[in-house]
Each structure stands twice: as structure tokens, then as C-alpha cells.
């Protein structure tokens, strides 16, 4: 196993994450949302399995956001011209992020709302 090559791959992947964070407002929004949910989880008190679900959802949203950014870049690389297929590719990729983010938000509500109800009443 070439360890140096492995570390180089990590460096490239990290560069991709930094690029998306710097250039994509949606990615920064999801990072902010994840920080807020983490703080809320801390204050509310989640079980280990609930934290595992929340972390998995964070990872899923971040990963899809990165893939969406990659698709946007490839579409722009292929052609900067307006084309219905280019628009569809970007819209479908963005739709994938939205679908997972909405599912994550619903799961978040299922985890958090009963706990907040218990604290209030
Ligand atoms: N080449 C294109 N041809 C047709 N429609 C496009 C094209 N590029 C973008 N669009 C349409 O405009 C929308 C926004 O595209 P854009 O690349 O600006 O995405 P964005 O999410 O605003 O990206 P960024 O975060 O880089 O500004 C797309 O979802 C798509 O509907």
C-alpha cells in the first residue's frame, strides 16, 4: 500500500471540501445547520443511537452537497452555454440534496420534538 498516495488523496478530498465550503452558500448553510443541531442535541440530551442517526444524516447531506457541486462544475466545464439538459442535470442534482435534507429535517423533528414536549409539559 502506498501511504503517501493515500495521504495525497485525503489532501485532494479535503481541498474539494474547502472549495465547496468557500464557494457554495448552500454548503455553508448545511454546515451551520449541523452546528445548530449539534448544540441542540447537546442541550436536549440524545441517546447514542440518536447521535448515530444525526451524524449519519449530517454526513449524507454534506456528501450529497459535494456531489451536487461536482455535477455543477462538470456541467459548466462541458459547456457554459444554456442547454435544457444542462439545466436538468443541475436541477436533478439539487433535487437529490433537497430530498435528503427534507427527510433529515423530518427525522430531526421525530427525534427532537417529543423530547422538547417532555421538557415543557
Ligand atoms: N448551462 C445551463 N443551461 C440551462 N440552465 C442552466 C444552466 N446552468 C444553470 N442553469 C439553471 O440555473 C440554475 C442555477 O444554476 P447555477 O449553476 O447558477 O447553480 P447555483 O446553484 O446557483 O450554483 P452556484 O452555487 O455555483 O451559484 C440551475 O439549477 C439550472 O436550472
UniProtKB/TrEMBL annotation:
It is a multi-pass membrane protein. It is found in: Cell membrane. Its EC number is 2.7.1.-. InterPro entries: DAGK (IPR000829), DAGK_sf (IPR036945), UDPK (IPR033717). It comes from the Bacteria. The keyword Endoplasmic reticulum does not apply. This is Diacylglycerol kinase family protein. The lineage of its organism: Bacteria, Bacillati, Bacillota, Bacilli, Bacillales. Keywords: ATP-binding, Cell membrane, Kinase, Lipid biosynthesis, Lipid metabolism, Membrane, Nucleotide-binding, Phospholipid biosynthesis, Phospholipid metabolism, Transferase, Transmembrane, Transmembrane helix. The keyword Metal-binding does not apply. One of its GO terms (molecular function) is kinase activity. Belongs to the bacterial diacylglycerol kinase family. The chain crosses the membrane at residues 27-45, 51-71, 92-113. PANTHER family: DIACYLGLYCEROL KINASE (PTHR34299:SF1).
Amino acid at each position: 500500500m502506498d501511504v503517501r498516495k493515500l495521504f495525497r488523496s485525503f489532501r485532494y478530498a479535503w481541498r474539494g471540501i474547502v472549495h465547496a465550503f468557500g464557494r457554495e452558500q448552500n454548503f455553508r448553510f448545511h454546515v451551520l445547520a449541523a452546528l445548530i443541531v449539534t448544540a441542540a442535541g447537546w442541550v436536549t440530551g440524545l441517546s447514542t443511537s440518536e447521535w448515530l442517526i444525526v451524524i449519519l444524516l449530517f454526513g449524507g447531506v454534506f456528501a450529497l452537497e459535494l456531489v451536487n457541486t461536482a455535477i455543477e462544475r462538470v456541467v459548466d466545464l462541458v459547456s457554459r452555454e444554456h442547454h435544457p439538459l444542462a439545466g436538468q442535470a443541475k436541477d436533478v442534482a439539487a433535487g437529490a440534496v433537497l430530498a435528503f435534507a427534507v427527510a433529515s429535517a423530518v427525522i430531526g423533528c421525530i427525534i427532537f420534538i417529543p423530547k422538547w414536549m417532555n421538557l415543557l409539559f
